[in-house]
Amino acid sequence: MEAKEFRKAGHSPSLLSAFLYFDVSFMIWVLCGALSLFITKDFGLTDTQKATMVAIPILGGSVFRIPMGILADRIGCKKAGLTGMSLTLIPLLWGWLGGTSLLQIHMIGFLLGFAGASFAVSLSLASRWYPPQYQGLAMGIAGAGNSGTALATFFGPQLAQAYGWHNVFGIAMIPLVMVMIVFAILVKDAPNAPAPKPIMDYLSVFKHADTWWFSMFYAITFGGFVGFANYASIFFYDIYGDSANPGGLTKIQVGYLVTITVIAGSFFRPVGGWIADKIGGMRLLVILYSVVSVCAFAIATMPSSFLVMLLYTSVMMACLGMGNGSVFQIIPQRFSSEIGVITGIVGAAGGLGGYLLPTYILGPLKQSTGSQVTGFLVVGSIVLITTLIFYAVTRSWRKSWAKAESGVNF
């Protein structure tokens, strides 16, 4: 009965299109990470350079998410989505026919941020079609497009080994064009979409402290997910790969491990949104942050078995995925009329967190210490502190906008 009511409450073709747009875009956004073992071999990069290379697309996505969010509010999600996909063709074409220097790889990676900016459009499209009681589930379904990461990590290394990593960029244009056609046919902008406003009116949300709090909390959940998803191939191969251990894992086998880890984070996102609808996103996030912190410390023990490590990383990614769904169960209840731009802002913060994780924590600490241990001790400590801050902030929310009589499911 509940599933039937959910379908009636919104527009299923638009929700499906939002998922497909996010899915194919996420697949493209993390291509540099999925192909990292092949690209870095061609250029002979240091640990820090490897981390930077896989993180630059995340930075690009962070930069482009705010303007894409504003664009979704001003011209509608349908036109904004088609614009975003058209721009994504540029770096794919460049990676296919060019990408012969590290500088070009960095520029291609940054432009892949157009794909990462799909977040601001697809989640806005899903949110506007569904009432408050279904926000967590609707945005979780759209956000499950994170699963595109699994497509990249599973097929990317195999295609790169068979055809060369340059050609993988060309192959990626095929599903993107297919999704563009589906998106153009099926999507309808929600009738309750707000009227366009002056640019400065959109940016006025920066004056709210809650904008910054949501940005910080999402920088941990989404930043942790996408940052580790891009770095995971380097991480697993560094510890368990055949270059360091005779008889160790091949690059293709590492791709399988990363795919399992990423699937855990991707497919648990709608689960997190659904649970948040039931018990409240604030309650759920306290639990999830705590588990993520414990998992990071467990990863720092560097177990000798890659299967044990896979368990630790998968549980951590599943909790980060559920955390992503939980954050966006809360946001529409606080910023219902500015959902496009707030999605862009908070999404940008998430992307920034994903950029900082490998570039300034995992990569440099690995290079300076010769081990991945210190990086994950730092990550565990950061998440633990965030858990305490989140608990304190949500107590103040319950005294202001998230009061029981407000109808907010917190």
Automatic annotation (TrEMBL):
It holds the Pfam family MFS_1. InterPro entries: MFS, MFS_dom, MFS_trans_sf, NO3_transporter. PROSITE patterns: MFS (PS50850). It is a multi-pass membrane protein. Residues 13-398 form the Major facilitator superfamily (MFS) profile domain. Keywords: Membrane, Nitrate assimilation, Transmembrane, Transmembrane helix, Transport. GO terms for biological process: nitrate assimilation. It is found in: Cell membrane. GO terms for molecular function: nitrate transmembrane transporter activity. SUPFAM superfamilies: MFS general substrate transporter (SSF103473). The chain crosses the membrane at residues 20-39, 51-68, 80-97, 103-125, 168-187, 212-234, 254-272, 284-300, 306-327, 339-361, 373-393. The keyword Transport applies. The keyword Hydrolase does not apply. Gene3D superfamilies: MFS general substrate transporter like domains (1.20.1250.20). One of its GO terms (cellular component) is plasma membrane. Belongs to the major facilitator superfamily. Nitrate/nitrite porter (TC 2.A.1.8) family. This is NarK/NasA family nitrate transporter. It comes from Paenibacillus rhizophilus.
